[in-house]
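Morning!

As promised:
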Amino acid sequence: MKRADLMQNIAILGASGYTGAELIRLIAVHPSMRIAALAANSKAGQSMAEVFPHLRHLDLPGLVTIDEIDFSGIDLCFCALPHATSQEVIAGLPKDLRIVDLSADFRLRDPEAYAKWYGNPHAALECQAEAVYGLTEFYRDDIRAARLVAGTGCNAATGQYALRPLIAGGLIDLDEIIIDLKTGVSGAGRSLKENLLHAELSEGAAAYGVGGTHRHLAEFDQEFSAIAGRPVKVQFTPHLLPANRGILATVYVKGDPRKVHGALHGAYAEETFLEVLPFGQVPSTRHIRGSNFCHIGVTGDRIEGRAIVIAALDNLTKGSSGQALQNANLMLGLDETAGLMAPPVFP
Amino acid sequence: MKRADLMQNIAILGASGYTGAELIRLIAVHPSMRIAALAANSKAGQSMAEVFPHLRHLDLPGLVTIDEIDFSGIDLCFCALPHATSQEVIAGLPKDLRIVDLSADFRLRDPEAYAKWYGNPHAALECQAEAVYGLTEFYRDDIRAARLVAGTGCNAATGQYALRPLIAGGLIDLDEIIIDLKTGVSGAGRSLKENLLHAELSEGAAAYGVGGTHRHLAEFDQEFSAIAGRPVKVQFTPHLLPANRGILATVYVKGDPRKVHGALHGAYAEETFLEVLPFGQVPSTRHIRGSNFCHIGVTGDRIEGRAIVIAALDNLTKGSSGQALQNANLMLGLDETAGLMAPPVFP
Amino acid sequence: MKRADLMQNIAILGASGYTGAELIRLIAVHPSMRIAALAANSKAGQSMAEVFPHLRHLDLPGLVTIDEIDFSGIDLCFCALPHATSQEVIAGLPKDLRIVDLSADFRLRDPEAYAKWYGNPHAALECQAEAVYGLTEFYRDDIRAARLVAGTGCNAATGQYALRPLIAGGLIDLDEIIIDLKTGVSGAGRSLKENLLHAELSEGAAAYGVGGTHRHLAEFDQEFSAIAGRPVKVQFTPHLLPANRGILATVYVKGDPRKVHGALHGAYAEETFLEVLPFGQVPSTRHIRGSNFCHIGVTGDRIEGRAIVIAALDNLTKGSSGQALQNANLMLGLDETAGLMAPPVFP
Amino acid sequence: MKRADLMQNIAILGASGYTGAELIRLIAVHPSMRIAALAANSKAGQSMAEVFPHLRHLDLPGLVTIDEIDFSGIDLCFCALPHATSQEVIAGLPKDLRIVDLSADFRLRDPEAYAKWYGNPHAALECQAEAVYGLTEFYRDDIRAARLVAGTGCNAATGQYALRPLIAGGLIDLDEIIIDLKTGVSGAGRSLKENLLHAELSEGAAAYGVGGTHRHLAEFDQEFSAIAGRPVKVQFTPHLLPANRGILATVYVKGDPRKVHGALHGAYAEETFLEVLPFGQVPSTRHIRGSNFCHIGVTGDRIEGRAIVIAALDNLTKGSSGQALQNANLMLGLDETAGLMAPPVFP
């Protein structure tokens, strides 16, 4: 049913990782996109069926190196490369190519903040200058007009969905925000690390990146401070769960819980993918798995003036590849929700 | 984009179970179907958001009792009810209503076989007489013309995909077939049983329904004997795995492995959903999760004249609700694959 | 090797639940205890091998009703019964029988607090008056002399291990304590509830008992207020994890992180089962699974004056049955660690 | 309570792997053994608390290289090294040192069989000549007298427990044996392989080593042929499960099921660790987890003359480190069951 002349040609760089595979999964049933090129330098020459057997039924181009791609026919390019690599690659791509980057490389507007959190000076400052921060619901117009969109951190997206309207509305104490976050393992990618082995990870839980050291804090700092008009620093403790997908952010704030709920409900009333639950209900990562939806719940506490906001989304979908596709839809003038309306997979 | 006048009105009876929810998940993005009525007697009055929060973003009709549904506007009705209940309900539905039944009630053509395996005489023999067995790829023409289609058992489907072409081709010893099957837990439904608790099930494995007692044997007997033109009895031992979705059937046969592979490859060359892997490769349930695809691998053994056929499918999708939708597409004259092309969800 | 004349005779009431089974697992290799009677009213007449096949190799008494037990030969009785039931049963037991109760019935010293949190007036106030709160390391002398010891809540134990020395030492802001807790599913017992099914629970995470409603708050209130000498109310949000065993409590406090670490390290230096990790390290529930050990880690935060204390223990062992056995050892004049030194099971 | 003068000094080579850690877990509560040296060449200089935090409470020697160990004071040495490495190391150890090897290096008596299955000529044929095959229940007397005992493959042990008495008794067709085996992931060790990542493994199942290629077949061939007095070749298909521990072997044989049950029941009547269930019952890996017990069930089939034997054991305990300790007990003249009677951990 797809009409070839109306189809947008898509390239994906870094197609052998989980976010690359997730992009292909989503685009495979997208009404207006066609995958024209797939690059994965370390696996060039292989077929996607070898690298990701769950995609074997698709008629996909084989994996090539980035250099082998002719970008002249590409309408939009997703970069699902590791950070640091991404900025080098993007600096060398055609200057008129629409790009959605899923790495951390273009999220921070301040080069000094980038250098501080990532440990190296930025290698593509020119590109960084034109990059738009890709939290779709809050940068929609900029994204529509952008050439380069920087996908957000998956944890950063979750926390921001819970908090932005509250900070903007002046509803909470800005110096008393705690984000206790639980994440599935696919956020760490397909890397061979001992702590990601099934035998090391299943049937247990632990924190990591404690003490205010996780790099997604840089995004919280940038965005929350910009909204508040003054520096805002949150506490953020991520935990690794024995689950493949899903982020659950439990956010502790000081403010009136009913007003907090009202602000979130109002802010997201027209948003397709952001569902604010009735007051007192809590979301579960099970109920958004594999989808682009984000569920947000608000409760009060027995201690007056405290509210708990809990947000759940799928790190691979709404937290990265789904967000990237949503942004690509905007950049290409397509329906923002195209290819993203499949319900979560439960159980 | 859906044009209301071309949309088929769908009713689902038994919408509070896993196969009901899976039907809704699939139909939610089907281009030509609209969910017009949802029944669940025990939860009538509730919304689907209460029963299945992962579907909360959908604009669905509330749950009602079956009696409350006006079937005059319904184009096709899915029955996702428990067996025994299903036959009673279907006996009372309009005689011209297209029905896809997901229960065990209309799978067996021989009433005596039904009574033997299910322990009660059949209560709707008239309906049974017109029911078509719903293994799509092998009953496609009958299904297209049918009013009532009986969905297969999920285990029965998996075993048949592995074996039917081999029996039809006279390639294997009919008296030496062993199906060692591993299944995820959602096949047992949303029922409150001690052995289905997370604490009882996770991190372990065990057989159940051993010794030739599992009811899906009745389907194997019926189908394989019909193909062979003489009684065929297989051994079948199911095992329960700590996974929510997925069936892996490891089938041991006596025959030439290359011919076995060739027969399966040939039989399914034109089938969209049945993927025969290159000889020697093995499928994984991870690679078909949440999808309507079935992966089939064939290997030989160091003992000459032995072949191992391994088939993997998702019990809730290709094993029940996806199959049901595929059949409904045929019955309504739609594209057989409509709503079913979403790739598997991995990881 | 066990010498019969030195063996203590043990009865377990409620032997068909998880804490009952855990007691048997531990006592089976205890050098000075012998299981003399096992009661489970709903399963009386069955063998333990039927109820818990993992115990089938043990030579255990069959399950009987509580009434059938002759308590005259029993040295100590564990009550692993549901709350409310426990107080009725214990009221009827011999007044000189040593009892360790694992239910919630005797944890709260204030009858009004009990009635408020549990919704019914207490039915055995006389027994409650003599009950000692069973947090071993803090009530050791009282427990040694007690006839009736009330096991703590598993979550309550975890939070107290993280916080008691800090409150006692005046090291943290008493009005700003947040306990974000993650727990495995066995804490909910062997009950048939939809949310405890594998298909509902695996591969996901969600909060429950939110908003200051969880009953273990009553224990926090009682204990922390007693230590501080003034009312202390904490925030406490439990989350259910896809794991069978293990509690991880992430506790956010305001205080000097090094002093916090020092206080915990000092308080537990002589404790066999409480391991304080080097500053900056975090514990994992994987590393205490199946054991009576509790690991505690302390980190600072980039925001000065904030500390994060993370405590991990096994809810079935150190959180209930292991604690109960540790207390029983004290009550019987045995080595406190007898039967409890088996290392955690990893992976 | 341990008396130092009666304690056996134990060395463990390869202490940084899962079987090494399992040995330490078991020996930590062994009444007559003391861990005197721990070697792990790649992690020499580290403490066990760093490598395996679950063992942090133990007062263990630090990790050293093998060369650093003074074997003169060692009573028995466990080698938990990778195969190929093990033979080289053992060839260089003192000739009078008692050794229990957990690798594959000394399991096969025929050097040609070794070379065929493992792809290299054996480097320590002299040692191989004196090695005793470590399937305790069947080589007890030889093990008692041995200097070097070769631990069995974990899958090989499971299959042999199911089959040896049947082959010895002439009860089954020797040319029609099929072992369909399901194993947890810890059997693959702590190695960094993509297919062992949580994201790749959880919530799914697949076969591996298909077609008669798995090296444990060499052990089946050797042992079953020796018992039968003629060549016996079985079919063996292992599957990887989303669980950390546990092997379930479903064995299909032709023979009278009652006689099969009787033979196993009779053969193991006096065995502490081998539990034959009542006829018709099936074992579960959940019910032996973390223990040295093996549960075996037998059922018939609706097809006369077929029997199904299902055996379950923990690959890390009865399948390797528990077996090794059982053998070490025999070699040192200790109670065979010392340190091995802890019940399984459930749930």
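The mean pLDDT of chain A is 96.

Hope this helps with the figure draft.
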